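Good morning,

Attaching, inline, the backbone tokens for the sequence recovery test we're adding to the shared suite. The designed sequence is right after.
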């Protein structure tokens, strides 16, 4: 997506790029939220506010501690002022395409629990085929924008790739 953006945008537009989820860059910079934000910011000649934190905490208590850190708050302070958000669509299937599972952020048992709750996809939170939030126990470990903040953003764009994401796109 970052490569498909315009080469130059007028600085007068006042665009700022804000990372809304922590990173999962252990495998490749292609999956790195901070790298994607940098590329988008460069395309827009815009300042970039990065979230230097993991995508998932080990437990909800750890998430609360991480989210309270000054360096994290410097980025999250922008969340209530976002006008457009662009996020990738994650999946619940236990496949090689599932980064969170591959990196050990979630166990197979947690993914089974998500499936039993009806989860079909993930874009900042897990959701079911009707778009309703599910998987609250796991969502409570995510570092970044919360569902309430996400739903307040006027324009929400979700990018999806991969054969496993059909149900997630519907939801």
């Amino acid at each position: 997506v970052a490569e498909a953006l315009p080469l130059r945008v007028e600085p007068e537009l006042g665009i700022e790029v804000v990372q809304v989820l922590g990173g999962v860059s252990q495998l490749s910079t292609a999956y790195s939220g901070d790298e994607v934000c940098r590329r988008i910011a460069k395309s827009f000649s815009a300042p970039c506010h990065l979230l230097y934190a993991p995508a998932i905490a080990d437990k909800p208590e750890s998430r609360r501690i991480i989210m309270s850190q000054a360096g994290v708050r410097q980025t999250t302070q922008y969340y209530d002022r976002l006008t457009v958000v662009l996020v990738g669509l994650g999946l619940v299937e236990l496949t090689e395409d599932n980064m969170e599972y591959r990196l050990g952020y979630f166990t197979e048992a947690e993914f089974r629990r998500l499936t039993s709750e009806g989860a079909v996809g993930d874009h900042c939170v897990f959701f079911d085929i009707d778009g309703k939030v599910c998987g609250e126990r796991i969502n409570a470990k995510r570092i970044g924008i919360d569902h309430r903040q996400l739903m307040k953003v006027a324009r929400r764009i979700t990018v999806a790739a991969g054969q496993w994401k059909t149900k997630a796109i519907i939801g």
